[in-house]
Amino acid sequence: MHFPRIAVPLHPDTNNYNYTSQMSTLTILIVTVFCIGYLCIALESLTKINKAAIALLMCVCCWTLLMMAPASYYPAIPGGEVIHHISEVIEHHLGDAAGTLFFLMGAMTIVEIVDSNGGFNFVRDAMKTRSKRKLMWRMAFMTFFLSAILDNLTTSIVMIMVLRKLVQSRGDRLIYAALVVISANSGGAFSPIGDVTTIMLWIKGVITTQGVLTEIFVPSLISMLVPAFILQYQLQGKFDKSQNLPKADVTQFTKAQRDIIFWLGVGGLCFVPVFKTLTHLPPFMGILLVLGVLWTVTEIFHHNTAEDDTMAKRVSDLLSKIDLSTIMFFLGILMAVAVLQEVGVLTMLGSVLDSTFEGNHFLVTGIIGVLSSIVDNVPLVAGCMGMYPVAATGDMAIDGIFWQLLAYCAGVGGSMLIIGSAAGVVVMGLEKITFGWYMKKITWVAFVGYLAGILTYWIERSLFF
Fold first, then answer.
1. In the chain, what is the straight-line distance between the N-terminal and C-terminal CA atoms, in Å?
2. What is the largest CA-CA distance in the chain?
């Protein structure tokens, strides 16, 4: 979701060297605060301080530093309007973040409603097996293709709910959950509607549906297969019979009613991009529409049940169970990264990459992909779209090497850290995965798959395109 930007840029013109000293001091302070906060988040298992609290503190401190900058830092804005202007900018970024958070909360609630009423039973039964490795491969492929149809965020929520029904051992489930993150991000990268960044590039017109499906599908598949092949060796043997059996259904719904709930929930999530295209409303409005319809239908199904079993009470319970600490963490991270975007750090970084590795799009986009695991990939891609013009021919043309690689790297690169993607943040909250565990066990695996995908794309371009 994007609101129209106000006409006057917040950060100073990077070509105006009269303000270089002030800009450097302020930028260094903000980046330092961001790095300290990020380090504390990474060391959550040692500090025992909730990552959401650190993210919120980091966000407020960065914006406070920006607000305290001298008026001369903003040469294009009259002195008396600086505070008002920054407030407008904060509201703009808060609007973007709120749209993402409401989408997340709506999607989580829809999946919870479907799950609590037995809607995922047939998905669970289709994946059910006593072999740990067979389950891993079934889960990986289902996540990969489902994320291209829905999106990586929603798919991750769905698959974690299914895994909770199939795998009771926390140690095993962490491995599966990590592969869900990798598979969801890889699957979202080859679809124009599978990830926020591919949607941005698609709407901008720098990639086409046919182009991204043709060129990025195989690299994305490789970036999922390689980590899955490595992680399968951490899953050996079979589940105990008591570990992998379906739990008794607590819902009073018939099979037909459960199927209706499933198709309304999952079908409704698929309909959200269509709703956005038809109405031009933000995606979270589509999520609220689906939630309202699903809530109403389920209420009708409960019409003849006991009064204390109404859907109103159930939805209230589900809403109270949403992990607000994850929501607050997401808010703090998005708003903190917004400060880096406003002071021009991301744009400056792109300029440095462009001048350092001029002409080597594989290196530039590869580094951007690694950076997308540290900061949000949305402002990174937005900065690239504003910095690099679309050419009529060559690597920068529509469906050119640069734009295709940017779609792949920004999407798949987020798998290298648990907080590098929306899917990772959600799984982190649902399964209580620590930053340190993921970095120690999974980061190198995701990085190997990431490089394998880039190599695959290079071979594709050399031999077939």
1. 34
2. 74
Distance CA 201, CA 404 (A): 9
pLDDT at 303: 72
Enumerate residues 6+ apart whose C-beta is below 8 A from 151. Answer: 188, 193, 194, 195, 196
CA 410/CA 220 separation, integer angstroms: 12
Asked whether 97 and 105 are in contact (CB, 8 A), the reply is: no
What distances in angstroms separate CA 364 from CA 95, 199, 212, 408, 454, one per listed residue? Answer: 31, 21, 19, 13, 12
Give the number of other CB atoms < 10 A from CB of residue 460: 17
Number of Cβ within a 10 Å radius of residue 141 = 16
Dihedrals φ, ψ of 238, to 5°?
A: -125, 160
SS3 call for 75: coil
pTM: 0.71
Q: Locate 103 and state its tokens.
A: 């989408």
Neighbour tally for 180: CB within 10 Å: 32
Write out residues in the chain with pLDDT < 50, as ranges: 1-22, 245-246, 248, 311-313
- Cα(59)–Cα(265) distance, integer angstroms: 34
Is the distance from CB of 420 to CB of 413 less than 8 angstroms?
yes
Residue 84: is it exposed, middle or buried by C-beta count within 10 angstroms (0-12/13-18/19+)?
exposed
